[in-house]
Design a protein that fits this description.
3-stranded antiparallel β-sheet, binds iron/sulfur cluster, about 200 residues, alpha+beta
């Protein structure tokens, strides 16, 4: 029981804040031990866009969950509990060129409000401004994933509306969220990729 409580406290340590008006430097990942690849620090699943499916399904499980208002969301499952991502080898990502968007942008993250957020719990962040200066992210950082994120998020939302809740079956529960697979016959290319990803369960 004590162990469970400690793990829960670590899990909630992620702290995403809007980058607006922030000044932060990024030092190094060398001494961190890849916390952003660990379920222990809350890296378990991440909501994905339609454009992410193609890249994600070959390496990760894609499942669906239902938001508070019943809206369907697609997520990639990085890991199910408190372990490291299975692609960590010698503290390095073994699929670096094909890692998902959530890994590419971290500690930055896109958001539905079209602003960019940063996880201030990343150990590499420190006082300074070589990474973010007055809310502006360094020009050498690839920001293509953030462009039109709100439009892509809404497009994904409306596309997934065609799938009905009664056609999903519960698969697993991760840290308070129930995840489902689609059970009906479908030629939809995203459902096909979801089905192919089930080999990663
Ligand atoms: S990005 Fe941050 S959390 Fe991830 S390995 Fe580097 S220092 Fe660690
Ligand atoms: S895909 Fe690579 S970068 Fe992403 S969580 Fe796994 S090991 Fe880390």
């Amino acid at each position: 029981m004590l162990i469970k409580i400690k793990l829960t406290i670590l899990y909630i340590m992620k702290n995403f804040e809007n980058v607006k008006n922030k000044n932060l430097s990024f030092s190094t990942c060398k001494t961190c031990g890849a916390k952003c690849c660990s379920g222990l620090y809350g890296s378990n699943f991440s909501q994905i866009l339609l454009e992410d499916f193609e890249k994600v399904y070959k390496n990760f499980l894609i499942l669906f969950s239902f938001g508070d208002l019943g809206y369907l969301k697609a997520s990639l499952i990085l890991n199910k509990e408190y372990e490291m991502c299975k692609y960590i080898v010698d503290s390095k990502c073994s699929i670096y060129e094909n890692r998902p968007s959530v890994c590419r942008t971290y500690p930055l993250s896109p958001n539905i409000d079209n602003d960019i957020y940063i996880d201030e719990s990343c150990p590499a962040l420190e006082l300074g401004d070589n990474f973010i200066k007055d809310g502006i992210i360094n020009e050498n950082i690839d920001k293509s994933i953030f462009v039109s994120y709100q439009d892509k998020f809404i497009e994904t939302h409306f596309y997934l509306e065609q799938f009905k809740k009664e056609d999903f079956e519960f698969v697993l529960h991760i840290k308070g969220v129930d995840f489902y697979k689609y059970t009906k016959e479908s030629k939809d290319k995203y459902i096909q990729m979801h089905r192919n990803s089930l080999k990663h369960i």
